[in-house]
Amino acid sequence: MFPKGNCKYGYIDKSGQIAVEPQFDDAHQFSEGLARIEVNNKSGYIDKNGSVIIKPQFDHARDFKEELAAVKIDDKWGFVDKTGAIVIEPQFDWVDEFSEGLAVVQISDEYGYIDKTGKMVIEPRFYYARNFSENLAAVEILRSIYKSKWAYIDREGHVVIDINSDNAYSFNEGLA
């Protein structure tokens, strides 16, 4: 991705040649074969040839992960597939990308997890939640109005590691 003097973005290949002419108001890296672009404050997706695959129509969008991308329409988040079809209706206040088949979703002030069909598999009950990694997810549990603590849950939502910490991050290579 590179900006041109007119503040439009395009893409170059590894030899430095223009692969996609600068034409976008913003452009992001490719993920799963598609790149998120923005035109007139709307987000869409292109392929590596620069062809628009999903026209810019979303208020905001994120990169594709596990074949789905989070999109925001009228202040609610949902998910689309690589054809632009809405797979999970925009209904959430916030979402994160899919990881290990589940995505963090926020409803009001609580976080839970959905599967790729949109089914709520872990009900929103956490003060904050992170993506699953190595079959565990770090979640913040509100203990009282001014006190919270972090724990790790399994894919059923059971606390399997209870820690006394002000923060926790995802496991990577067996460590967190």
TrEMBL record:
InterPro entries associated with the record: WG_beta_rep
PANTHER family named among the record's database cross-references: DUF3298 DOMAIN-CONTAINING PROTEIN (PTHR37841:SF1), GLR2918 PROTEIN (PTHR37841)
UniProt protein name: WG repeat-containing protein
Organism encoding this protein: marine sediment metagenome
Taxonomic classification: unclassified sequences, metagenomes, ecological metagenomes
